[in-house]
Design brief:
heterodimer; A: mainly alpha; Methane Monooxygenase Hydroxylase, Chain G, domain 1; 3 helices; about 65% helix; flat; B: 2 domains; two-stranded antiparallel sheet; about 70% helix
Chain lengths: ~120, ~400
C-alpha cells in the first residue's frame, strides 16, 4: 500500500473510532435512560395544538434553485483547485484561460440574477 | 509529483509506527472532546460576561464542570421518537452531523516544528512524523467535502422528523449552507493559489514564520472565509436554521435526550474545527517563534492561542450581532460574497502571474483594481436601471 493510501487509512481509522465512540454513547444511553410511553409524548410539536396533517405536505419551497446554482460553483471548484496549485507552471496562459472560465461563470450568476432567481421577496 | 504526506507512513510499517498512529488518534480525540467541553463552558461564560451576568458558576471551580453535569443529565432523559417520524433516519441523523466534525479535525496540524527547513516534522521514538493525524495531499478538499456532508445530517434530521418546523428549518439550513459553501470554497482557492499546495501541513509550512495568508492574500479572502464560516456553522448572526422565535428549534425540534445532545455537541465541535481551519489556512497554524525548550511545544501553544482568539470571536459575534433576515442572508451570500471572492481571485491571479513573469507589480495591481471597480460600477448601474424599471412597472399597474 502506498503512502498516499496510508494517509487515507489513518483518516478511515479515525472515522471508525468516531463511529464507535458515538455508538458507545448511544448504547450507554439506551441502557440507562427511562422509558415511560404515553401517547401524548409521541405527537409532533406544533406550538402546543394538535398537529394538522403530516410534516410531509406539499408546500412551495423555492430553495432548490440555490441548490442548482451551488452545483455550478462546486463543479467550478473541481477545475479551479488543481489549476491553483500549479499557477506558476501555467503562467500567464493558464491565468488567461482561468480568467475566461471565471468570467463565464460570473456571467452565469449574472444571468440568474437578471432572471430574478436571487430575489427573495 | 511531490506529495507532502506524513514521513511516518512513507517507510516500512513496524510496531512503533502503529503505536504512534494509535497515540495520535487518542490524543486528537482527547483534544477535540476536551476542547468541546471547554467550548460549551467558554461560550456560556463569555456570553454571560458580555451580558453582565455571571454565567455558570455552580459545578466545579468557575463552573468548569457544567458541561459534564449537563452531559450526565442528558443520559438520563427519555429518548422520544415521534410517531410520524421516519424512525431509522431519525435515529442516525445525529451521527451524520457529528462524524464530519471529527474527520475535519484529522487534517488540522495541531503542533509541530515549523522553523525554517523543518516543515512541521518532529521525531518521536526515532520516527519522523507530523503532529497531525493525517496529511492527505488534498487536505483542503477533505475539509470542504466534510462541510458538505454535514449538510446531510441537518437535512435528514429535519426531514425525518415528519413535522413542519423541523422540515422548514432543515430546508433553510441546506440552502444557507450550500450558498455559503460556494463563497467558502472560492476564498480557500485564494489560499491555495499563494501556497501552491492542497495539503494542510504544506499550507502551514508555506506561511512560516510570518508570511501569514491573512496578509499575503490581502485580508479580503480571510474576511469572506470568516463570514461564510460563521454561516456554515449556523451560528449567530446566521442562526436562521434554529431561529427559536420563528421555527421553535429548527431541525432539532423533535429531538430529545442523548440525540439532541449529539446535535448540540456537534455544533460546538464544528465551531472548534472551523476555528482550527481558519488558523491553519490564514494564521499560520502552529508556526511561530520558538523561545526555549522543544519547538513542537511552542507549536502547540501558538496553535491553542490562535484557536482561542477565534473561539472568542465566534462567541462575540453571538453576543453582539442581531440575526439576519433570510433575504438579507441570501443577498449577502450570492450578491456580495461570491462576486467579491471571484473578483479578488482574478486580481490575486494577475498579481501572482505578474510576479512570475516579471511585470511591474504596481501596474498590475492598479490595472486589476481599475478593471474590478469598473465591473462593479457597471453592476451598480445595471441594478439602478432595474430598480427604476420595476418602479415604472409598478406605477403602470
Amino acid at each position: 500500500m502506498s503512502a498516499f493510501l496510508r494517509e487515507y487509512l489513518t483518516v478511515a481509522i479515525f472515522t471508525g473510532v468516531a463511529f464507535g465512540l458515538l455508538a458507545g454513547v448511544l448504547s450507554v444511553g439506551k441502557l440507562i435512560r427511562p422509558v415511560r410511553p404515553q401517547a401524548e409524548k409521541y405527537f409532533n410539536y406544533e406550538s402546543g395544538v394538535d398537529a394538522v396533517g403530516t410534516g410531509w405536505v406539499q408546500s412551495p419551497i423555492r430553495y432548490y434553485v440555490f441548490a442548482l446554482l451551488f452545483v455550478m460553483f462546486d463543479v467550478e471548484a473541481v477545475f479551479i483547485f488543481p489549476w491553483a496549485t500549479q499557477l506558476e507552471i501555467y503562467g500567464w496562459f493558464g491565468a488567461v484561460e482561468m480568467g475566461i472560465f471565471i468570467v463565464l461563470l460570473a456571467l452565469g450568476l449574472l444571468y440568474a440574477w437578471r432572471k430574478g432567481v436571487l430575489r427573495w421577496t | 509529483m511531490i506529495f507532502a504526506g506524513d514521513p511516518l507512513l512513507s517507510g516500512h510499517i513496524d510496531l512503533a509506527v502503529v503505536a504512534i498512529v494509535v497515540l495520535k488518534t487518542v490524543l486528537t480525540f482527547a483534544l477535540l472532546l476536551v476542547g468541546t467541553m471547554f467550548m460549551v463552558w467558554f461560550e456560556r461564560k463569555v456570553v454571560g460576561d458580555l451580558q453582565n451576568r455571571i454565567g455558570p458558576n455552580r459545578a466545579g471551580p468557575f463552573g468548569l464542570l457544567q458541561t459534564l453535569a449537563d452531559g450526565v443529565k442528558v443520559f438520563f432523559k427519555e429518548d422520544l421518537i415521534p410517531e410520524q417520524a421516519d424512525r431509522v433516519i431519525f435515529k442516525y441523523a445525529p451521527l451524520l452531523s457529528m462524524v464530519p466534525a471529527f474527520i475535519t479535525f484529522a487534517v488540522v496540524p495541531i503542533a509541530g516544528d515549523f522553523r525554517h527547513g523543518h516543515s512541521g516534522v518532529v521525531s518521536i521514538f526515532g520516527h519522523r512524523t507530523l503532529l497531525q493525524l493525517a496529511d492527505p495531499p488534498i487536505g483542503v478538499l477533505l475539509v470542504l467535502a466534510m462541510s458538505s456532508i454535514a449538510v446531510y445530517g441537518v437535512m435528514l434530521a429535519g426531514w425525518s422528523s415528519g413535522s413542519k418546523y423541523p422540515l422548514l428549518g432543515s430546508v433553510r439550513a441546506s440552502a444557507q449552507m450550500v450558498s455559503y459553501e460556494a463563497a467558502l470554497g472560492l476564498s480557500v482557492v485564494a489560499v491555495v493559489l499563494v501556497s501552491g499546495t492542497l495539503s494542510t501541513s504544506g499550507i502551514v509550512s508555506a506561511q512560516a514564520p510570518w508570511k501569514w495568508n491573512l496578509w499575503v492574500t490581502g485580508v479580503v479572502p480571510f474576511v469572506i472565509f470568516l463570514i461564510s464560516g460563521t454561516a456554515e456553522l449556523n451560528r449567530p448572526p446566521f442562526d436562521l436554521v434554529e431561529a427559536e422565535q420563528e421555527l421553535v428549534g429548527g431541525y432539532q425540534t423533535e429531538y430529545s435526550g442523548i440525540r439532541f445532545a449529539l446535535f448540540y455537541l456537534a455544533e460546538f465541535m464544528n465551531t472548534i474545527t472551523m476555528s482550527a481551519i481558519i488558523v491553519t489556512l490564514f494564521l499560520g497554524g502552529p508556526s511561530g517563534p520558538v523561545i526555549l525548550g522543544p519547538a513542537w511545544i511552542w507549536g502547540l501553544i501558538w496553535f491553542l492561542l490562535k484557536l482561542l482568539i477565534f473561539l472568542f470571536v465566534f462567541v462575540w459575534f453571538r453576543a453582539t450581532l442581531p440575526r439576519f433576515r433570510y433575504d438579507q442572508l441570501m443577498d449577502l451570500g450570492w450578491k456580495a460574497l461570491i462576486p467579491l471572492s471571484l473578483g479578488w481571485l482574478l486580481l490575486l491571479t494577475a498579481v501572482r502571474v505578474g510576479d512570475v513573469e516579471g511585470w511591474n507589480p504596481f501596474l498590475v495591481t492598479m490595472v486589476g483594481a481599475v478593471v474590478l471597480v469598473a465591473a462593479y460600477g457597471l453592476l451598480v448601474l445595471a441594478m439602478r436601471a432595474a430598480r427604476r424599471n420595476r418602479q415604472l412597472a409598478e406605477e403602470l399597474l
